[in-house]
Amino acid sequence: MDDYLSVANSTAMWVLALVLVSIVVVQALMYLRHALAFSDKFGLLTPEEKARVYKTATITSIGPAVAVFIVSVSLVALIGAPMTLMRIGVIGSAVFELYASAQGATALGVELGKEGYGLQAFTNSVWAMTLGGSGWIIATLILTKRLGNAQAKMRTSSPRTLIIMGVITPAVIFLVLSINAAFNIRSLGNIEVEADKLAAALGAALSMLLFRHLGKTQPWLKEWSLGFGLLIGLAAGQLTHTMMA
Amino acid sequence: MRNAEADSFYSQTFIPRAHRLGIVTLVLGLVFSLLPAFYLSFVVGAWPGFEAVLRAFIPIAAFVGVIWIIEPLSYFPMLGVAGTYMSFLSGNIGNMRLPVVIGSQTAVNAELGTRKAEVVAVIGIAVSVLINLVFVLAMVLLGNLILNHLPQFAIDMLKNYTLPSIYAAVFMMFLGAAKESMHVLVVIVVALIVVALPISEIVNVTAAGVGGILASLLVARFTSDRREKA
Questions:
Q1: Across A5-9, A10-14, A182-186, least confident range
Q2: Is the distance from CB of A226 to CB of B176 less than 8 angstroms?
Q3: Residues 45-84, chain B: which have Cβ within 8 Å of A?
Q4: Model-level pTM?
Q5: How far away is chain A from the Cα of B203, in angstroms, using its nearest Cα?
Q6: What does the pLDDT read at residue B2?
């Protein structure tokens, strides 16, 4: 294996990564300013509510961010720090990038990070990750304007449909994601329960019910509820795992 | 009236500007995300050849091609225009952006579909993009150092149980936003049908998005608003 990692971690790659990161940061800051200006102009959010949004968003982000960290830290050794920063930090998701970089290696008959995975195979992995990831950006570029127009039309013609859609669609998606995470469904007659993961899901779900109830008298709990729910889920999963072992 | 003024500002200034900002930043993001591949291929000189690139790309496109289109579509009702441009540039949508959106909206009692909810979503996503970057920077710079100091059980716990916990918690938050018990029933029935379909777990999330949108249209079409009747 030739030393592709010295190229992968070279200054030029770092510069490219930092430019991409700054695009994402600048975008986030510009939208933040845009939304705050709109809110201030028409008094949509009180200063107290704004503070609550900052706090909730921060607390809620930390758990998933730590998990992404743990899952993708192994990528640094495989594709170098700058590519990990670009793919995990700003555009993609750990699972897809790992899959795509492996495809790039397979196309040249080698395995990701194993014997024979050199500079050319690494370059092919980079092509696979970026071209694969481009699909989402291109689809978003094409679709968002149309979706925005459709939404604006529905807002006047059938606002109720929008509200129903805003509740039912995400609830279905997240229920399916939860079931996927806790069960292995090979066919209807062949369903494997992953008891520890099911316990994590149930622990988190039940604690959310409790927090919602308590939140009526303790408003500060609302900011923490997803963070606490995640911690209780983690503990329930680990506890079940320990008891089963 | 103040409300009408806000409406016209929203549709004539807020949204058009959100589109312009999104298109410019996404095109820039697209170009700059491709630069490392060009740099490695033509400056360093490690171009693997068209055939190799295609051999890697075609299975990927076959695998996720449908998801490219369905994801922006099915997440749009929750993310809105600005939220969609931000989320699809920064990634981590299901595990981070959507939890932040529903969590922040619930924290300030912003009802789904209102201007307030949309503004809250944009602020929340922007904050979460910045927070996530801090963690990713720490990861690429100090990753192994930090990993070596974490006990193994903590690493396993975070690896194995974060997703089931966060998905189930977020599901409960959306369910809490449902005003009618009939909607809850529809959600459960549609989700059970989707997981029973003989398709892989990666595709069935997409099917959940499509199923959710179709079910919402049917529910809206065949039920009437109770408040209207009263």
A1: A182-186
A2: no
A3: 46-48, 52-53, 55-57, 59-61, 63-65, 68-69, 71-74, 76-78, 80-82, 84
A4: 0.88
A5: 11
A6: 66
As a whole number of angstroms, the distance between CA A164 and CA B113 comes to 9
Report the residue from B18, B71, B90 with minimal CB separation from A24. B90
Q: Which residue pairs from B139-147 have beta carbons closer than 8 angstroms and sit at least 24 positions apart in sequence?
A: B139/A69, B139/A72, B139/A73, B139/A76, B139/A84, B139/A88, B140/A76, B140/A81, B140/A82, B140/A84, B140/A85, B140/A89, B141/A81, B143/A69, B143/A73, B143/A76, B144/A73, B144/A76, B144/A77, B146/A69, B147/A70, B147/A73
Alpha-carbon gap, residue A160 to B221, rounded angstroms: 10
Token pair 């102009």 in the structure block, residue: A41
**CB within 8 Å of chain A, chain B residues 129-168:** 129-141, 143-144, 146-147, 153, 155-168
Rounded to whole angstroms, what are the CA distances from B93 to A79, B8, B226?
Answer: 23, 30, 34
ipTM given for this complex: 0.88
Nearest to B198 by CA among A137, A188, A234, A69: A188
Average per-residue pLDDT in chain B? 89
Q: Which residue has the tokens 């996927």?
A: A180
Residues of chain A contacting B22 with CB distance shorter than 8 Å: 144
Per-block mean pLDDT, blocks of 10 residues, chain B (230 long): 82 95 97 96 95 93 85 88 96 90 93 90 96 87 80 86 91 87 94 90 83 91 62
